[in-house]
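User: I'm curious what two different proteins look like when written out as structure tokens. Can you demonstrate?

Assistant: Sure. I'll show them one after the other, since each token string lines up with its own sequence. Here's the first protein:
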Amino acid sequence: FGSSFRLAHSQLGSPTRAWEGGAGAMAARAARIAAWFKDTENLKNVARMTAGISFFSLALLSMKRVSPGHVGLIEDRTGNLRPYVYDDGQLVIAIPVWQRCINIRLIPVKKRFIKEYKTKDGKDVEVRVLCRLQPKVHWVPEIYLKFGKDYGRGFLEQEASIDIEEVVRRYTFDELVKGSEDFVDKVVDEITSRLNDASAFHKIKVATEETTIVFLDPEADEE
């Protein structure tokens, strides 16, 4: 049995010799890699490969497609817009990190606006506006710069709100909330007319026939 064990041990070799053999192979492999990188032509090939991969990755990331039913704008990080309006489905180029593609909805969008205003007699009245808006295509850049991507809400909050406030403060609470239907309709027509003038100035279409304006008591829901 002892002679058999010694024979097997001599065939396998000692652990020290096995480790030294592995370390030598690793050192030889490292030396070959180092020698490969010292070759100028090899370094040029690596640089070409890296540049090619980077270029194609950047090209893929820079291609953006405008969403259906929208028009596209290209804006850089400083807030400047490219002087073009891109059609829906069109493929555009935007430099990653520096530029972005903004989709502006071209299909008419319905917006609801609710806000409280002071009446002539100092009371609060709740005004609810429901209307449908659509931007004029060639003026989309100006509309975006003025009101942002959600141009409908921006227009109602920045422009329509001022007109509503000016009309409401000329009437009392009872006239707006409890007045006759004919009287309230005249007030609504006045606000609607002002909205149309403001929207025309900012190149936004408002569907007058679909616009509804209601005056409510803000405390009625709390009771």
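Here's a second, unrelated protein for contrast:
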Amino acid sequence: MGITREGRHKRRETGGRRSKFRKKRKFELGRPAAMTKIGEKNTQPVRGRGGNLKFRALRLDAGNFAWSTESCTRKVRVLDVTYNASNNELVRTKTLVKGAIVLVDAHPFKEWYESHYGVKVGPKSKQVASTGEEVKKSDHAKRKISARAKGRSLEQTLDQQMGSGRLLAKITSRPGQCGRADGIILEGPELAFYQKMMARK
């Protein structure tokens, strides 16, 4: 018996039974879940209806993650799966699905932030980024960086995560359909909500 997506075998809303007036059809088929794991990238093309291709990711180790408030997107490594609202089993088996909360490498975002605003983030955030050999900048570049730094604000929770080298992020793409694990960096009320849910476990 193949996997099928039809709903004719279900009872009616009133509880009555539906009659079987036809067999399964090719256009009603379903396929096994991809159950994407963390590892060296491995995607398989799957032919769909109309000759269209889906890309079934079997293993992924990186993705494009966006830091929305800073309009900054970087390709970063996915390190671990920490929470999944739908199923704890997917956390235990470290399965990448849409909506999963994962830990990603913070260094690309940290490097960008420090060069963009000219400040250090993390444990020694009180220091200005002028340790070791200082890179010579023109007066115009210095004025531009200081103007940026005036209106900047970094959440304390994000600052701490940057210091630890890991950021909490949410996968917003569908790894089993498009073969990618892209997402957003969690911040603000959404980050607070997921931290509360993880602490509750």
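A detail about the second structure: Residues 188-200 form the longest helix (13 residues).
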